[in-house]
Specification:
There is one protein chain. With 203 residues, the chain is α+β, with helices and mostly antiparallel strands. The protein folds into two domains: 64 residues, no CATH class; 122 residues, no CATH class. The chain is built from six helices and eight strands; from the N terminus they run E-E-E-H-H-E-H-E-E-E-E-H-H-H. The strands form two sheets. A four-stranded antiparallel beta sheet has the order 1-2-3-4, covered by helices on one side. Strands 5-6-7-8 form a four-stranded antiparallel beta sheet. Helix 3 packs parallel to helix 4. The protein starts with 8 loop residues before the first strand and ends with a helix.
Protein backbone atom coordinates (compact mmCIF):
# COMPACT_ATOMS: atom_id res chain seq x y z
CA UNK A 1 0.00 0.00 0.00
CA UNK A 2 1.34 3.41 -0.97
CA UNK A 3 1.54 6.03 1.74
CA UNK A 4 -0.22 9.36 1.34
CA UNK A 5 2.02 12.25 0.23
CA UNK A 6 3.44 14.35 3.07
CA UNK A 7 1.60 17.53 4.06
CA UNK A 8 2.53 20.78 2.37
CA UNK A 9 4.51 22.82 4.87
CA UNK A 10 6.36 26.07 5.32
CA UNK A 11 8.29 27.10 8.42
CA UNK A 12 9.02 30.17 10.49
CA UNK A 13 11.40 30.85 13.37
CA UNK A 14 9.14 28.92 15.75
CA UNK A 15 7.69 25.87 14.01
CA UNK A 16 6.52 24.20 10.83
CA UNK A 17 3.34 25.55 9.25
CA UNK A 18 0.97 23.21 7.48
CA UNK A 19 -0.48 24.82 4.37
CA UNK A 20 -3.88 24.20 2.84
CA UNK A 21 -5.27 25.55 -0.44
CA UNK A 22 -8.87 26.59 0.24
CA UNK A 23 -10.02 27.39 -3.28
CA UNK A 24 -11.23 30.97 -3.66
CA UNK A 25 -10.33 31.62 0.00
CA UNK A 26 -6.68 31.21 -0.92
CA UNK A 27 -3.79 29.65 0.94
CA UNK A 28 -3.99 29.26 4.71
CA UNK A 29 -1.50 27.90 7.25
CA UNK A 30 -1.77 26.43 10.71
CA UNK A 31 1.14 25.63 13.05
CA UNK A 32 2.11 22.01 13.55
CA UNK A 33 3.09 20.58 16.96
CA UNK A 34 6.50 21.70 18.16
CA UNK A 35 7.13 18.61 20.29
CA UNK A 36 9.09 16.08 18.21
CA UNK A 37 7.04 13.10 19.44
CA UNK A 38 3.72 14.76 18.56
CA UNK A 39 5.02 15.92 15.19
CA UNK A 40 6.26 12.41 14.40
CA UNK A 41 2.90 10.93 15.38
CA UNK A 42 1.01 13.48 13.28
CA UNK A 43 3.11 12.71 10.20
CA UNK A 44 2.79 8.96 10.76
CA UNK A 45 -1.00 9.11 10.86
CA UNK A 46 -1.10 11.58 7.96
CA UNK A 47 0.95 9.14 5.89
CA UNK A 48 -1.59 6.35 6.27
CA UNK A 49 -0.68 4.48 9.42
CA UNK A 50 -2.34 2.71 11.11
CA UNK A 51 -4.95 2.93 8.32
CA UNK A 52 -6.09 5.12 5.45
CA UNK A 53 -9.39 5.67 7.28
CA UNK A 54 -7.62 7.31 10.22
CA UNK A 55 -5.40 9.25 7.83
CA UNK A 56 -8.40 10.52 5.86
CA UNK A 57 -10.10 11.65 9.06
CA UNK A 58 -7.00 13.49 10.24
CA UNK A 59 -6.61 15.29 6.92
CA UNK A 60 -10.30 16.22 6.85
CA UNK A 61 -10.16 17.50 10.44
CA UNK A 62 -6.99 19.46 9.69
CA UNK A 63 -8.56 21.06 6.63
CA UNK A 64 -11.67 22.00 8.61
CA UNK A 65 -9.60 23.42 11.48
CA UNK A 66 -7.48 25.42 9.05
CA UNK A 67 -10.63 26.97 7.59
CA UNK A 68 -11.68 28.11 11.06
CA UNK A 69 -8.45 29.28 12.71
CA UNK A 70 -5.81 29.16 9.97
CA UNK A 71 -3.98 32.30 8.92
CA UNK A 72 -4.38 33.55 5.37
CA UNK A 73 -0.90 33.52 3.83
CA UNK A 74 -0.51 33.69 0.07
CA UNK A 75 3.25 34.05 0.53
CA UNK A 76 3.63 30.75 2.37
CA UNK A 77 6.07 28.44 0.58
CA UNK A 78 4.30 25.14 1.01
CA UNK A 79 5.19 23.18 -2.13
CA UNK A 80 8.56 21.43 -2.53
CA UNK A 81 9.34 23.60 -5.57
CA UNK A 82 8.62 26.83 -3.68
CA UNK A 83 10.73 25.75 -0.72
CA UNK A 84 13.58 24.68 -2.97
CA UNK A 85 13.73 28.07 -4.69
CA UNK A 86 13.54 29.83 -1.33
CA UNK A 87 16.67 27.94 -0.28
CA UNK A 88 18.26 28.67 -3.66
CA UNK A 89 17.58 32.38 -3.25
CA UNK A 90 19.07 32.42 0.25
CA UNK A 91 22.30 30.87 -1.07
CA UNK A 92 22.54 33.46 -3.84
CA UNK A 93 21.78 36.42 -1.58
CA UNK A 94 24.14 35.26 1.14
CA UNK A 95 27.26 34.69 -0.96
CA UNK A 96 29.39 37.48 -2.45
CA UNK A 97 30.93 35.02 -4.93
CA UNK A 98 27.60 34.49 -6.69
CA UNK A 99 26.51 37.19 -9.14
CA UNK A 100 23.13 37.39 -10.81
CA UNK A 101 23.39 38.25 -14.52
CA UNK A 102 20.73 38.85 -17.16
CA UNK A 103 20.28 35.22 -18.07
CA UNK A 104 21.60 33.27 -15.13
CA UNK A 105 24.38 33.26 -12.54
CA UNK A 106 28.14 33.63 -12.39
CA UNK A 107 29.84 31.69 -9.61
CA UNK A 108 33.44 32.32 -8.55
CA UNK A 109 34.90 29.15 -7.09
CA UNK A 110 37.80 28.45 -4.79
CA UNK A 111 40.09 28.14 -7.83
CA UNK A 112 39.23 31.74 -8.83
CA UNK A 113 37.53 30.42 -11.95
CA UNK A 114 34.24 31.89 -13.11
CA UNK A 115 31.40 29.47 -13.84
CA UNK A 116 28.27 30.50 -15.69
CA UNK A 117 24.92 28.79 -15.08
CA UNK A 118 22.18 29.57 -17.59
CA UNK A 119 18.89 28.01 -18.71
CA UNK A 120 19.25 25.49 -21.51
CA UNK A 121 19.43 21.81 -22.30
CA UNK A 122 22.48 20.61 -20.44
CA UNK A 123 24.16 17.25 -20.02
CA UNK A 124 21.82 14.35 -19.20
CA UNK A 125 18.88 16.63 -20.06
CA UNK A 126 19.47 18.91 -17.08
CA UNK A 127 17.49 22.14 -17.66
CA UNK A 128 20.58 24.32 -17.30
CA UNK A 129 24.05 24.77 -18.81
CA UNK A 130 27.26 24.95 -16.77
CA UNK A 131 30.28 26.53 -18.45
CA UNK A 132 33.54 28.19 -17.48
CA UNK A 133 33.67 31.88 -18.29
CA UNK A 134 36.68 33.97 -19.28
CA UNK A 135 37.67 36.85 -16.96
CA UNK A 136 36.28 39.28 -19.55
CA UNK A 137 32.97 37.36 -19.32
CA UNK A 138 32.93 36.81 -23.07
CA UNK A 139 34.61 33.48 -23.80
CA UNK A 140 32.86 30.33 -22.67
CA UNK A 141 34.02 26.76 -22.27
CA UNK A 142 32.14 23.65 -23.32
CA UNK A 143 29.09 22.77 -21.18
CA UNK A 144 29.93 20.26 -18.49
CA UNK A 145 28.06 17.62 -16.54
CA UNK A 146 27.70 17.70 -12.77
CA UNK A 147 25.80 15.56 -10.30
CA UNK A 148 22.08 15.92 -10.88
CA UNK A 149 19.07 14.16 -9.40
CA UNK A 150 16.07 14.77 -11.64
CA UNK A 151 13.72 13.61 -8.87
CA UNK A 152 14.61 16.60 -6.70
CA UNK A 153 12.89 19.99 -7.13
CA UNK A 154 14.76 22.26 -9.53
CA UNK A 155 15.76 24.71 -6.80
CA UNK A 156 17.45 21.91 -4.82
CA UNK A 157 19.33 20.79 -7.93
CA UNK A 158 20.56 24.33 -8.60
CA UNK A 159 21.59 24.68 -4.95
CA UNK A 160 23.79 21.59 -5.33
CA UNK A 161 25.37 23.00 -8.48
CA UNK A 162 26.07 26.44 -6.99
CA UNK A 163 27.49 25.04 -3.75
CA UNK A 164 29.60 22.57 -5.72
CA UNK A 165 31.06 25.25 -7.98
CA UNK A 166 31.81 27.50 -5.02
CA UNK A 167 33.97 24.62 -3.82
CA UNK A 168 35.50 23.71 -7.18
CA UNK A 169 38.89 23.41 -5.49
CA UNK A 170 37.51 20.40 -3.61
CA UNK A 171 35.22 18.73 -6.14
CA UNK A 172 37.90 18.88 -8.83
CA UNK A 173 39.31 15.74 -7.21
CA UNK A 174 35.96 13.94 -7.50
CA UNK A 175 34.60 14.90 -10.92
CA UNK A 176 36.56 14.40 -14.13
CA UNK A 177 34.35 16.89 -15.97
CA UNK A 178 35.31 19.64 -13.52
CA UNK A 179 38.97 18.67 -13.74
CA UNK A 180 38.91 18.74 -17.55
CA UNK A 181 37.03 22.07 -17.67
CA UNK A 182 39.55 23.67 -15.31
CA UNK A 183 42.43 22.30 -17.40
CA UNK A 184 40.95 23.73 -20.61
CA UNK A 185 40.24 27.03 -18.90
CA UNK A 186 43.87 27.38 -17.84
CA UNK A 187 45.14 26.55 -21.35
CA UNK A 188 42.89 29.14 -22.99
CA UNK A 189 43.65 31.74 -20.34
CA UNK A 190 47.41 31.22 -20.71
CA UNK A 191 47.10 31.51 -24.50
CA UNK A 192 45.21 34.79 -24.12
CA UNK A 193 47.90 36.17 -21.80
CA UNK A 194 50.61 35.29 -24.35
CA UNK A 195 48.63 36.91 -27.17
CA UNK A 196 48.15 40.06 -25.10
CA UNK A 197 51.83 40.20 -24.19
CA UNK A 198 52.90 39.81 -27.82
CA UNK A 199 50.47 42.53 -28.81
CA UNK A 200 52.08 44.87 -26.29
CA UNK A 201 55.56 44.06 -27.61
CA UNK A 202 54.62 44.31 -31.28
CA UNK A 203 51.73 46.78 -31.58
Amino acid sequence: KKNAPPPLCDWNHETYLLGIELGISGRHVIPLPTQPSLLERFLTVWGGRPSTLVSDRLRAATRHLTKIVGLHSEDARITPLERSFSLYRSIIDGNPNVEVIDNGLVVKGGLNILWRITPGRGAHNAPYLIQTMAPNKVGLGQPICMFDDAELPLGDRLCSVVLGLLNDDKIIHQFEQIKYAVHQYKIVNARDHITTALGDLFP
